[in-house]
């Protein structure tokens, strides 16, 4: 644990990543206080200042109805972070539990669970989320449901593969011999050995959840106006390319920064925690 | 004096550097092999015996984290005087190596014949297919492989461990090297197969006059094979001398502990000397008074 | 032996597709509200709705409904799109080729750029080429395809007018549709200038689509190469003094390609999904505009059909990759033969 921490703060890549994550979290948390125009996160209209290029007054310019882009991006980060926390907070426990059960219990439980996982994994991720959004109303909560539904199978498969390897290890056999209960073996003996892989994947995935969610809203199937969202900001801006370029470039850059930050840390973590992968 | 030796190592030190600091692995090793001599370097895992072989081979030098000092002389050529490329040209021609686990050391996606061909081209870059084939068949017959043609056409995973081991010995000897490095050969095989292949290897190198540096954790295995022994402990040579002399009269406490461990060590067990004694750090015991 | 392997893979793929159909059917049935009412719109009469319910088998139990759905599916009948009023199959046949064209070229970029980058990084492991490639590949996977599409469009179509802004072919050229693949149709028509124009139009969207996949492929190939480099047979090759370039090319690359190819096959799924994002920016007349359209219209038949076809395409791509892997891996090849 300590060693992991030392490496993370010594490797220049993860240091940059950690600083960027800190920045994104700070901005998301204090969006209302640090935004130059916090009220622009809502349905404000100021046609006098519409489509202003970046300037001292509006650092990243304004959109078609005169709202400050910087303030909207800050608030969009808040939604992105909430989305990441909720999606991973639900899909990881579900996926891990299913992976543990399928990997440890043999026979029909394993067969049925893994076939279900396989079915989910054989629908291209974004397409599955799109289909779910297709039958539900496009709202933030439904967006979370759609992304969660496409996310858990990956954890189920990851944990399943680890458990299959660990099941035959001495420490598991020893626990079985002394008559430990199945929950004890699953959660106390096997789960701790899956944690490094799970933590690494979660770090990387936090970025990817933000990426997928922005893709959904880019297609008009996520968070609805006037709530600021990075994906829908880019989508709205594409109509004004190339002249009003700041409407697409800055929100796009904002997505890149957030996802890149988690990828940097996750990539270093992967090297440290799973040296054999 | 060193002119006549096949291999001469003088005051070899090695340390690895990483972000935690540096770790000294070898603390000044001296080792000599005369032409045609079979020498064993024995110690437990982590004692520094395998890295010694890799320094002689020149592969460890390519690691940025390794710091190496001291002298390595093969056939009168000083490594320090040569470029890495020049030293590399000795590999596979004058120096060759046999690895611990034959089934993973041979490339899984190529046929044996192709791997032989590659080795042959080290000494004869323009060797003809026909000639290569003839030499392969001949050397495979030397390692007692009954149907060389079939073996040559196989992939390593289609052959047994013992068969792969013979193939590897054949590959190591086909270019008539002056020095053969053998890193725990056959440890991954079962005991009887290991004994057979070692016997075979001994016959072959004896006939060809090849010098051998045999690396092992198991004194029992080297007894039949080696003329002389070096016992290594934590990066230092603690005892050296003719095999017979050391087995009859082991004088260093660590050597005695290793000898006592032999019965437990048949097969591939990792030699753990249970209790670590201060006495293991006693100075070198030299059974021979050859000039060093 | 490859035939039997493909046959077995096809069998299990059919099973998975059956599962996909059940899943997608269930998703479509949890829709809040009456699908028939949604299909007809608020102005339809109650009579029309009842009639529609019969057509959609909504008056029968769910199991029977699924049975109807399956039998129609087997006959290649995906129903009528309520959005375009045409058979869903016809719609998909019209829009899918454009998307596949995009995805296939992107897949080619993924292999042609990703593998060499990964090999390069592994060879200079720890050195500056490795670190540079690491940062670049992390960047490419860190933005959704539509962001790259916007960036490339701004730089290479507007700022430097090197590539066309939208469309599949120059507007003055008209080519009869045969396969739906513009690149192939222009060749069939013997229209050389059209072929060049089609490729020219295809390049930028496909490149934008491929970027994150290129990053993935490079990173994966790097770690596979490094794993292979640590293996005893590479040490053996080095101990025999084989030239370093030769070791990289023929000793390390081939064994590392096997897992890389498998994962690249899986990444095909991401390409199919991300095609939605890129088509949008380049006004590419593929399955995306249709897909998003039917989703917004809650056109159930079309949603189900589109997902089924895309999943089937993905699974078929995986079978093809599996065959490729079998061809270069002697171990599997021989295991098959002795079977």
Q: Topology, please?
A:
The complex is a heterotrimer of chains A (277), B (292) and C (339).
Chain A: H1 2-10, H2 12-29, H3 31-34, H4 69-104, H5 108-121, H6 125-135, H7 140-166, H8 170-177, H9 182-218, H10 230-238, H11 246-273
Helix pairs in contact in A: 2-4, 2-11, 4-5, 4-7, 4-9, 5-7, 6-7, 7-9, 8-9, 9-10, 9-11, 10-11
Chain B: E1 7-18, E2 21-33, E3 38-42, H1 49-57, E4 66-74, E5 77-78, H2 84-88, E6 95-98, H3 102-105, H4 112-123, H5 129-142, H6 148-152, H7 161-173, E7 179-183, H8 191-208, E8 211-216, H9 219-225, E9 228-233, E10 236-242, H10 243-248, H11 253-261, E11 285-286
Parallel strand pairs in B: 3-8, 3-9, 6-7, 7-8, 10-11
Antiparallel strand pairs in B: 1-2, 1-4, 4-5, 9-10
Chain C: H1 2-29, H2 35-40, H3 46-55, H4 62-74, H5 88-123, H6 128-141, H7 145-159, H8 182-188, H9 192-229, H10 232-239, H11 244-282, H12 287-296, H13 300-328, H14 330-337
Describe this entry's structure for a reader:
The complex is a heterotrimer of chains A (277), B (292) and C (339). With 277 residues, chain A is an all-alpha fold. In chain A, 73% of the residues lie in helices and 0% in strands. Chain A has one domain (78-273): MetI-like (MetI-like fold), CATH 1.10.3720.10. Chain A is elongated, with a radius of gyration of 22 Å. Chain A starts with a helix and ends with a helix. The model of chain A has no long low-confidence stretch (mean pLDDT 86). Chain B contains 11 helices and 11 strands. In chain B, the strands form 2 sheets. A 7-stranded mixed sheet of chain B has the order 6-7-8-3-9-10-11, with helices on both faces. Chain C contains 14 helices and no strands. The model of chain C has no long low-confidence stretch (mean pLDDT 83). Chains A and C meet through α5, α6, α9, α10 and α11 of A and α1, α6, α7, α11 and α12 of C.
